[in-house]
Q: What sequence folds into this?
């Protein structure tokens, strides 16, 4: 078991690489799987010292989170699109919002940044040096406090579960 | 062009049109909104729906073409989700910095150390 | 002209026109961050164009170029952003 | 479209030449970069230009220049791109060295504006 | 090879003396004299073979295809000259032993002296005209070394250079003349040339050839207007002057006139050119000599005059005159050498050469004085001395010449006048310094020199006397032998008697001596009153001055011209290059109008039309913004690059598109890294540009438009003409079956044209090494060492995320925390994609190059986001090693083919059957591609990280500065 | 046709590349060992070049063809060896060996990576001489240039960087022009193999002649820049005189690559068989060459520093060579090739000497002699101190330097008795023949060149004498130079080389005459290249059945 641990220190990463390889190769033949596995093992080993040390748990939470974000992206897309179209007549109520954070993990915070970026309507603008808060620019917000609460519950909490 | 069934072609066509429309809207917003932070929002439309619909159209088209599931266009989607934030985060931070330097109005103060020490 | 080729033509047209709009920001600015974002968007439109051309011609040939933009296209624009912020790309 | 492409090559080349003639090193390096785009496109345009006929051999398709784009200019451009990249990098560093040693960024190391 | 051996004797002596201890004067002089004597004796022994017009000839083949062999040819004339050269050489070598200072390291002197003797002998013995030129130039060179022997003195350097310049110029002309003459005759062989006089004189190129040859002869023999170098050459040690200006160097010119006399003389042109020059030189030299106050300069001008006399004699187109010329060559050599040596003794003993200070030396040095008086009498043409004889023959020639009446009238008068002048300067040299009251204020107290120093002078003076008294018996046979070849084999009638009766020539001699004595009195009187210390009237004709000012002016003029035609500014050079390219391209195609072809056009695409317009706007925008808004210009450049890339995609060039994308990214990074070190440039207030500035911009704009239009027109013409019968189908047909890959472009890169690729990666490697080497010595400008504005603007508040986002090699924090985390996530994926591109390249778009770039970019991303120290603490990249390994892999792949018996870089494919996978094809081209990959990774990383390291160094520099300041 | 020896022809390219890579593997450690390794490779390279020359000398008009990667022309890249290329290879072997030995005495340590860059430069040079493919020529030009940039900048410092910037810019422009010209030629003829282009050029349809000529003209400009033809040569003297001596010495060969290429392509592609394109550009080459000689001569007059003089001497020699190409005359070309060898060796030696001489001057520019700048009166005593009439002893090292300098100067100025004189004689003789031949087409040009050559030789003599006097004579008070053995050997080696060249002038002339005859009969070359067959082999089963599709 320890030998396997040594060879495959990050099984998730290895798995992801194998999947990406097979998808890229556009072929599900055995040789591609083996080749993918080969790279999936070698690359994490080679870049071990350059790679993040992330513990990722709770696969179910991950799946649910991905679906949530995906759904939110689509919905927000239409909202922001509409806002853009009507912007010549009515500007959105955009403002900066400070969101206090409990998440501390590097990768978790990176994931949060990804989420805020890909979900239209929010722009990650600043992170306090002690990671205790972030500054978001929000496209259209009426009530700052409820937005913060909504944001923390919907996006931060699951990440905390996953990464910590 | 493609040998796939019409429905698939229709799905792909709709997705492509969607992509085009969203890209147009995002570009429109990017050009005509007057505040930089406002302008940072519309590109997200293109980064997300604009590309996702193309990726799905690609998956549909290629899968039918090769009569096997071809997921590689999806890879573009996934990679974009990871990489796009880097530029956005840095650019927003840079804009904030420059606006603070210029002492522009309506710029929030630096966050500094907010939480409990 | 099939449905799909019409749709791809439309999409390509949108990307091109969108790029032309973005070009306005690239040329006019006003600030450097606008231009960097504009370049990032241009790259993104270019990537979409490659993907759609691939769909239009039913070929995988251009996919890798698009993949490369998706994977590493951000490097130059984020380096520019960092340059704006710090005046130095690699510290 | 041929005329437009030719125009593109001309404009890239012209802008490059204009910049190469300028007195600041940075202008010159940008000019060289633009010039290399122009030259690469120029070489590229020597082959027969086709849409969707990449030189990736498909069994059963006749191997001639009616069914594939000419691979030769492509391979030449590929080499030219690489060499262009290398020389641009080199020029940049020499430019920096010159800037560091002369204290200014004039191509002749003199500080007069021209 | 008797002659060759004889000729090599002085050269061998030269080598030997060069190796002897420098101050062994006696040994050195002994060697030199012995060599000269031995050679002279050996030549003397050959008298019987040349006496009756015989010719001794030897040939060493050297350049038969150019018609040039080393031919050593001794006829009577050469024999006489060889004796003169070696005989006087022996005497001078002996004399120099006593003349040169004991402190002088004379090995160099004797070595050069013997080399000169050899060169001069070479001229004399040449049986091939080219060979003659060869030795001729050698005499110029060695005389340069001899005249400049005391090169620590500025006048020695100057005199030597002037002599070399003038005689070298003559040598060049001579070479031209010889080549022409050879072309006219069809051979350089002297025997052939000497027989071809009629052909030569009738040839249309004769005048040109003659002028060139005469230029050679006249410069060497110091003929007007090239005479000025000779007085300057008096800075040489006196033995050198005695040798060069009596029997050797300057005699080479008249030797040439005599040597080619049968071929070239006999024409009007010859008469006027040679005779005229000789006459002018004769008069001018004699006239100027009268007024000189330096002993050696009197001799120098008299030498000029006597050479003019000899030249005049050869120019008279009369065989009798030519004989007189030959005779005077001998006589002048004898008395002039003795006079120079006497002058040297005077200088040596008294410490001065100033005639005005010297007087009555006869009491202090009676023997030397007597010898000098006799020799100067010979120079003056006093009867019973050898100078009288040849001068008499000359007078006779002037009297009996039949030519134009004016010439017939003026020539005797001029000759007499020259004779008068000659008497005057001879008196000044001899009478003025030796007779009269003894001088009292000399630097040194004069006494007789060592005996062996007088012996050479005495020997020569004896010769003057013997010849002067009994010419027919003493010199008659030798003169006949020497003169016969000069006049073409048949000697004219002449009589060498001392007394021919009271005829016109004798009267002329008397007039000359009497008039000379009178004029001398007059001159001395005038000079006592301080007048005529410079020669009147001829100052305006000062050739030396003209020559020197010409040299100085030409240097200045050349520099001015160079500033115009060889500008050092880069912009002008670039302008010239582009303008020349445009002009030549237009000129070469002007006969054929540019015709647009009729190839089927590409279907229009509005989208790409827009993209291209964007590309053009970006290009123009980059051009406009490059001066003040560099970052903007870079973004614009990126836009243009992207459009180029899309063009590749649209026109079916996936590999190009891939590569272009990757290169774009790296290039942008590169520019950004460089931007840090460039000076801030802010657009000042809109100032009015100067007119010149605006004109230059307009000019540049026009050129840019011309270049752009040219390129556009050329590409449009190419785009529309029907495709030629290209070689490309070959590649399309063979890529898969024989190259083993479906991606033809890649197969071309790694197989068909792998040789290009090996060069290409070498370029990349070389550039990376260069950049690394250069940046190791990089020294940023002072203001660039300071942190960029943005960093110093950050408030000194540690609470912001912008301050020190990382400490040393700790992971990034602050504003970089998120980007760095994402960058780390991307890393493995990027490497995987790189492997994907590398492995599929042979069949699909991809390949080692783009894969390498992807890896490099992935690492650079880490540098950007996490910082140099963090990355380098975790990964030893060793880029140079990557380059080396990559190139070696590529080379090994190529050599593998050789091992297998095929040409370098031939691809092989290994077919491996693996369990449960089946047949796997492993083409060697894949290994080659891995080599490419490694080089690209190494080179790109080396390039960019070397730049990145500069920021660290600047920080370190700041730290030391602060530390030093504190 | 003699059978080509296996793989010999590729060695001049592979050997230096392998040298560069293996030296690079050692990094900057083991400097002594690396120096020996480097020199060893260079000696091997010279041996290979000599062997190739021997091979070409064996058969009259021998043309050896090497199919790199086993693909036949015009499809693959071929290396072609004839006497001309063999001559150039030997020359590059000699010059590079001398420069390398010299550099190993110390200059190689003025910066990093000297040896790898040096060998890469050598690879580029040799490749340019060998390749039979236009684009491959471009690649080898780039290899050569890329390394030359590094070598030119070797040791860094402001003069090198400033001139290097110009040098690089100009060469990058030249490369762009090269590519444009090459692309047009490919577009018109559909091929890149020089032999195939030559074979097809007569068949180019009339409407395309304008394009072909425009392309050729643009291509020619690229080579003219490299050959340092006026007005495209202002970069040369500053760049060369700023470079370290061994590098400048090697660079003496670089302009000759431009000349070689012009000669090769003009004789091959625009031969007398090329129909309307026959002898395209010849008058231009003549005029440009003469203008260049005049320019270089002017420079010689203007220059006092030895480095600049050597640079202008290179320009003069390049002008001379290019002008002779304009005549298209066998005898003249033969003489010109001899001249090429001689002038290159001379200039190389001069560049090596520059530093040894100027080191004596303590790196300070020599003060001009008084009469350099102002006229002095006849009676002005130029010796302030009334220097005594006692000669100075010359230390051995200085004597050696002086001797070597004089020998090199003789060669450069074309004075007897060394090879420069033979070369000049040959040129003049051939020019006179060309001018006086019945119905001579370029009599005026020939006479002009004749005169210009004579004059430039004279000016070179004067300039070199002036410089020599300045450096060796004027500064007697300065301490003598300390000469290292490794610096003396290559200098004397070059002197020996041109002495040998003089002694064996007949053999060399015969060789160059055969070379000239060969290049003016390009059919042999073309046939040899186009008829070379690949080995039937691993992937080439049925070679005989293949032809041009
Ligand atoms: Na967002
Ligand atoms: Na093969």
A:
């Amino acid at each position: 078991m320890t030998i396997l641990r040594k060879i495959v220190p990050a099984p998730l990463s290895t798995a992801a690489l194998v999947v990406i390889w097979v998808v890229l190769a556009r072929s599900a033949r055995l040789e591609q799987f083996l080749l993918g596995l080969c790279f999936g093992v070698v690359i994490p080993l080679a870049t071990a010292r350059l790679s993040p040390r992330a513990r990722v748990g709770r696969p179910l939470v991950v799946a649910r989170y991905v679906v949530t974000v995906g759904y939110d992206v689509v919905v927000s897309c239409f909202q922001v699109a509409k806002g853009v179209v009507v912007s010549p007549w009515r500007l959105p109520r955009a403002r900066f919002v400070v969101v206090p954070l409990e998440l501390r993990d590097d990768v978790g915070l990176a994931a949060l940044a990804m989420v805020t970026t890909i979900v239209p309507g929010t722009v990650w603008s600043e992170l306090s040096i002690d990671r205790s808060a972030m500054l978001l620019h929000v496209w259209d917000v009426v009530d700052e406090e409820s937005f913060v609460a909504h944001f923390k519950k919907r996006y931060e909490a699951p990440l905390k579960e996953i990464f910590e | 062009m493609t040998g796939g069934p019409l429905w698939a072609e229709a799905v792909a066509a709709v997705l492509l049109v969607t992509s085009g429309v969203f890209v147009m809207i995002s570009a429109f917003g990017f050009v005509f909104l007057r505040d930089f932070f406002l302008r940072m929002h519309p590109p997200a439309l293109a980064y997300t729906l604009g590309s996702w619909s193309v990726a799905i159209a690609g998956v549909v088209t290629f899968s039918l073409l090769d009569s096997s599931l071809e997921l590689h266009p999806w890879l573009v989607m996934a990679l974009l989700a990871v990489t796009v934030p880097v530029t956005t985060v840095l650019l927003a931070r840079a804009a904030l910095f420059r606006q603070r330097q210029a002492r522009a109005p309506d710029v929030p103060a630096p966050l500094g150390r907010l939480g409990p020490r | 002209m099939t449905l799909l080729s019409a749709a791809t033509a439309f999409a390509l047209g949108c990307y091109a026109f969108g790029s032309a709009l973005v070009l306005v920001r690239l040329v006019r600015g006003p600030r450097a961050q606008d231009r960097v974002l504009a370049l990032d968007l241009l790259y993104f439109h270019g990537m979409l164009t490659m993907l759609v051309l691939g769909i239009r011609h039913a070929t995988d040939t251009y996919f890798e170029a698009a993949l490369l933009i998706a994977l590493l296209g951000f490097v130059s624009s984020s380096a520019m952003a960092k340059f704006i912020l710090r005046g130095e790309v690699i510290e | 479209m041929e005329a437009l492409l030719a125009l593109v090559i001309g404009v890239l080349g012209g802008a490059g030449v204009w910049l190469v003639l300028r007195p600041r090193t940075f202008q010159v390096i940008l000019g060289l970069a633009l010039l290399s785009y122009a030259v690469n496109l120029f070489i590229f345009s020597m082959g027969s230009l086709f849409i969707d006929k990449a030189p990736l051999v498909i069994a059963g398709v006749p191997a001639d220049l009616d069914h594939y784009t000419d691979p030769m200019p492509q391979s030449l451009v590929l080499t030219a791109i690489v060499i262009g990249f290398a020389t641009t990098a080199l020029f940049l560093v020499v430019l920096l060295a010159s800037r560091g040693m002369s204290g200014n960024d004039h191509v002749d190391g003199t500080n007069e504006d021209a | 090879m008797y002659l060759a051996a004889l000729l090599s004797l002085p050269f061998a002596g030269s080598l030997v003396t060069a190796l002897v201890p420098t101050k062994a004067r006696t040994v050195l002089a002994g060697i030199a004299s012995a060599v000269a004597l031995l050679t002279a004796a050996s030549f003397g022994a050959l008298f019987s073979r040349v006496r009756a017009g015989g010719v001794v000839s030897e040939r060493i083949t050297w350049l038969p295809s150019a018609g040039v062999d080393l031919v050593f040819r001794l006829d009577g004339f050469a024999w006489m000259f060889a004796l003169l050269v070696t005989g006087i050489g022996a005497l001078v070598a002996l004399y120099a032993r006593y003349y040169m200072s004991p402190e002088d390291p004379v090995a160099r002197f004797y070595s050069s002296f013997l080399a000169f003797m050899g060169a001069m002998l070479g001229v004399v013995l040449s049986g091939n005209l080219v060979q003659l030129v060869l030795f001729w130039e050698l005499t110029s060179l060695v005389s340069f070394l001899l005249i400049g022997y005391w090169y620590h003195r500025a006048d020695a350097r100057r005199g030597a250079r002037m002599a070399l310049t003038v005689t070298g110029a003559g040598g060049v002309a001579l070479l031209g003349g010889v080549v022409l003459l050879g072309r006219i005759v069809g051979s350089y062989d002297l025997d052939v040339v000497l027989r071809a006089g009629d052909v030569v004189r009738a040839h249309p190129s004769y005048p040109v050839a003659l002028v060139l040859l005469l230029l050679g002869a006249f410069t060497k023999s110091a003929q007007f207007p090239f005479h000025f170098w000779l007085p300057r050459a008096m800075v040489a040690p006196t033995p050198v002057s005695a040798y060069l200006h009596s029997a050797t160097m300057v005699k080479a010119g008249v030797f040439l006139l005599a040597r080619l006399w049968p071929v070239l003389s006999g024409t009007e042109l010859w008469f006027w050119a040679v005779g005229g020059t000789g006459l002018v030189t004769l008069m001018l030299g004699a006239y100027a000599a009268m007024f000189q106050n330096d002993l050696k300069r009197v001799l120098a001008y008299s030498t000029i005059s006597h050479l003019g006399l000899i030249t005049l004699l050869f120019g008279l187109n009369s065989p009798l005159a030519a004989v007189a010329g030959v005779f005077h060559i001998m006589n002048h050599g004898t008395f002039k050498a003795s006079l120079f040596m006497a002058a040297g003794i005077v200088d040596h003993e008294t410490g001065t050469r100033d005639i005005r200070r010297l007087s009555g030396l006869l009491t202090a040095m009676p023997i030397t004085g007597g010898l000098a008086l006799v020799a100067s009498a010979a120079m003056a043409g006093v009867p019973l001395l050898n100078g009288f004889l040849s001068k008499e023959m000359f007078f006779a020639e002037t009297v009996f010449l039949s030519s134009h009446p004016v010439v017939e009238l003026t020539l005797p008068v001029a000759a007499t006048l020259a004779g008068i002048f000659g008497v005057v300067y001879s008196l000044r040299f001899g009478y003025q310094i030796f007779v009269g009251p003894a001088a009292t204020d000399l630097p040194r107290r004069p006494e007789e020199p060592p005996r062996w120093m007088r012996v050479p002078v005495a020997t020569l003076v004896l010769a003057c006397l013997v010849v002067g008294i009994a010419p027919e018996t003493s010199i008659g046979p030798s003169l006949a032998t020497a003169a016969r070849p000069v006049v073409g084999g048949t000697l004219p009638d002449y009589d060498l008697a001392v007394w021919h009766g009271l005829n016109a020539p004798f009267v002329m001699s008397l007039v000359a001596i009497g008039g000379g004595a009178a004029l001398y009195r007059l001159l001395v009187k005038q000079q006592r009153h301080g007048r005529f210390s410079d020669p009147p009237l001829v100052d305006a004709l000062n050739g030396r001055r003209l020559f020197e000012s010409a040299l100085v002016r030409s240097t200045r003029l050349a520099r001015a011209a160079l500033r115009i035609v060889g500008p050092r500014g880069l912009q002008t050079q670039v302008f010239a290059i582009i303008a020349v390219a445009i002009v030549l391209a237009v000129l070469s195609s002007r006969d054929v109008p540019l015709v647009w072809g009729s190839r089927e056009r590409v279907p229009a695409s509005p989208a790409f039309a827009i993209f291209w317009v964007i590309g053009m706007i970006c290009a123009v925008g980059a051009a406009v913004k490059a001066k003040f808004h560099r970052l903007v210009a870079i973004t614009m450049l990126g836009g243009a690059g992207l459009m180029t890339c899309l063009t590749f995609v649209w026109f079916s060039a996936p590999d190009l598109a891939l590569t272009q994308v990757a290169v774009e990214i790296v290039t942008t990074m590169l520019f950004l890294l460089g931007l840090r070190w460039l000076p801030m440039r802010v657009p000042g207030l809109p100032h009015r540009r100067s007119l010149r500035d605006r004109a230059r911009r307009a000019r540049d704009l026009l050129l840019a438009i011309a270049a752009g239009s040219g390129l556009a027109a050329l590409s449009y013409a190419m785009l529309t003409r029907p495709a030629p019968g290209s070689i490309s189908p070959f590649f399309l047909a063979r890529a898969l079956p024989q190259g083993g890959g479906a991606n033809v472009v890649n197969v071309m890169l790694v197989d068909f044209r792998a040789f290009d690729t090996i060069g290409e990666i070498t370029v990349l490697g070389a550039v990376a090494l260069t950049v690394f080497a250069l940046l190791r010595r990089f020294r940023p400008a002072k203001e660039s060492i300071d942190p960029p504005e943005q960093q110093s603007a950050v408030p000194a508040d540690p609470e912001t995320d912008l301050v020190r986002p990382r400490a040393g090699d700790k992971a990034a924090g602050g504003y970089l925390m998120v980007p760095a985390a994402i960058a780390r996530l991307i890393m493995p994926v990027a490497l995987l994609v790189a492997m994907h591109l590398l492995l599929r390249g042979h069949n699909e778009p991809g390949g080692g190059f783009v894969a390498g770039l992807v890896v490099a970019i992935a690492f650079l991303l880490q540098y950007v986001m996490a910082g140099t120290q963090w990355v380098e603490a975790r990964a030893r990249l060793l880029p140079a090693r990557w380059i080396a390994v990559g190139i070696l892999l590529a080379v090994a792949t190529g050599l593998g083919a050789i091992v297998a018996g095929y040409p370098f870089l031939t691809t092989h494919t290994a077919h491996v059957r693996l369990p449960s996978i089946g047949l796997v094809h492993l083409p060697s081209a894949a290994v080659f591609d891995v080599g490419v990959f490694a080089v690209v990774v190494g080179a790109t990383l080396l390039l960019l990280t070397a730049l990145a390291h500069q920021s660290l160094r600047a920080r370190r520099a700041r730290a030391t500065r602060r530390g030093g300041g504190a | 046709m003699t059978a080509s020896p296996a793989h010999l022809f590729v060695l001049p390219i592979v050997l230096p590349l392998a040298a560069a890579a293996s030296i690079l593997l050692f990094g900057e450690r083991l400097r002594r060992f690396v120096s020996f390794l480097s020199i060893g490779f260079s000696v091997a390279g010279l041996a290979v070049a000599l062997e190739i020359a021997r091979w070409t000398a064996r058969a009259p008009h021998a043309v050896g063809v090497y199919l790199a990667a086993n693909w036949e022309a015009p499809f693959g890249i071929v290396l072609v060896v004839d006497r001309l290329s063999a001559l150039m290879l030997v020359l590059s072997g000699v010059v590079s060996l001398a420069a390398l030995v010299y550099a190993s005495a110390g200059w190689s340590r003025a910066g990093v990576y000297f040896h790898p860059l040096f060998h890469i430069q050598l690879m580029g040079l040799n490749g340019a001489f060998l390749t039979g493919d236009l684009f491959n020529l471009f690649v080898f030009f780039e290899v050569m240039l890329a390394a030359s940039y590094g070598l030119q900048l070797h040791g860094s410092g402001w003069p090198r960087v400033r001139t290097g910037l110009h040098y690089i810019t100009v060469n990058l422009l030249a490369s762009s022009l090269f590519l444009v010209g090459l692309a047009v030629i490919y577009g018109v003829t559909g091929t890149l193999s020089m032999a195939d282009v030559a074979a097809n050029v007569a068949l180019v349809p009339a409407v395309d002649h304008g394009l072909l000529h425009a392309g050729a003209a643009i291509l020619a400009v690229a080579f003219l820049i490299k050959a340092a033809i006026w007005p495209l040569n202002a970069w040369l003297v500053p760049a060369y005189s700023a470079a370290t001596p061994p590098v400048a010495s090697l660079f003496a060969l670089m302009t000759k690559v431009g000349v070689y290429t012009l000669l090769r392509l003009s004789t091959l592609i625009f031969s007398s068989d090329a129909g309307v394109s026959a002898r395209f550009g010849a008058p231009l080459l003549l005029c440009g060459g003469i203008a260049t000689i005049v320019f270089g001569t002017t420079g010689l007059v203007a220059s006092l520093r030895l480095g600049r003089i050597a640079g202008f001497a290179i320009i003069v020699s390049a002008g001379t060579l290019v002008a002779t190409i304009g005549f298209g005359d066998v005898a003249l070309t033969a003489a010109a090739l001899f001249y090429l060898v001689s002038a290159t060796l001379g200039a190389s030696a001069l560049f090596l000497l520059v530093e040894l001489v100027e080191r004596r001057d303590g790196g300070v520019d020599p003060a001009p002699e008084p009469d350099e700048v102002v006229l002095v009166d006849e009676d002005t005593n130029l010796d302030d101190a009334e220097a005594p009439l006692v000669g100075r002893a010359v230390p051995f090292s200085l004597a050696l330097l002086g001797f070597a300098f004089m020998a090199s100067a003789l060669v450069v100025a074309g004075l007897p008795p060394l090879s420069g004189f033979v070369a000049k004689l040959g040129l003049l003789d051939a020019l006179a023949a060309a001018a006086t031949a019945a119905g001579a087409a370029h009599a005026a040009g020939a006479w002009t060149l004749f005169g210009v050559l004579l004059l430039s030789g004279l000016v070179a003599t004067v300039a070199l004498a002036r410089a020599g006097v300045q450096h060796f004579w004027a500064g007697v008070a300065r301490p003598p130079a300390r000469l290292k053995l490794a610096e003396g050997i290559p200098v004397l080696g070059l002197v020996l080389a041109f002495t040998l060249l003089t002694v064996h002038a007949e053999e060399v002339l015969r060789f160059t005459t055969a070379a000239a005859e060969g290049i003016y009969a390009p059919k042999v070359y073309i046939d040899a290249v186009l008829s070379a067959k690949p080995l039937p082999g691993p992937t080439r089963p049925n070679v005989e059945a293949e032809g041009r599709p």
